[in-house]
Amino acid sequence: MKKISKRTAIEALGLVFLAFRSGPIEDVHGGKICPKCDGHPEYRHITDPEMKDIMKASVNMLATLLELRETNRPDYERQIVHAMRFVEQWDSPEAVPQYLLRKDMSLANFFPS
After folding, report:
1. 2 CB contacts (<8 Å, ≥6 apart)?
2. How far apart (Å, rounded) are the C-alpha atoms in residues 46 and 44?
3. What is the mean pLDDT of the chain?
4. In a designed cystine with 69, which of 15, 21, 41, 76 is the match (CB 3.0 to 4.6 A)?
């Protein structure tokens, strides 16, 4: 399995924190544990509207960060460095097995010449 570089690991941790962990998921994660459904994966724990809000906020932040990376690298890096203060206890990312990665697609399909 391919190893993740330290720079990529730092960037991945920062992006996930900024685009996902510090968004609406925090509202779902906060509060009391449900005594009836805790530990029971057969029960839904996130409603469809909550999931939509979580994914929309995550995509918006990630798109903003990726655009910033292309247009203002110093500001982008400041955001990643800021996020690193909150993820020090997180596990380092690991590469997924290559067989999980699609090899039959290209972004060029979305951008006709």
Report:
1. 95, 98
2. 6
3. 87
4. 76
15, burial (CB in 10 Å: exposed 0-12, middle 13-18, buried 19+): buried
User: What is the pTM for the complete model shown?
Assistant: 0.77
3-state SS of 38-94? CCCCCCCCCCHHHHHHHHHHHHHHHHHHHHHHHHCHHHHHHHHHHHHCCCCCCCCCC
pLDDT at 92: 92
As a whole number of Å, the end-to-end CA separation of the chain is 35
Question: 75 with 5: CB under 8 angstroms?
Answer: no
- Rounded to 5°, the CA angle 100-101-106 comes to 150
Q: Dig out the tokens for 100 from the structure.
A: 């999980």
Question: CA separation (Å) from 70 to 18, 60, 65?
Answer: 17, 16, 9
Reference 18, options 94, 78, 93; nearest CA is: 78
Q: Which residue has the tokens 């924190």?
A: 17
Confidence of residue 13 (pLDDT cuts 50, 70, 90): very high
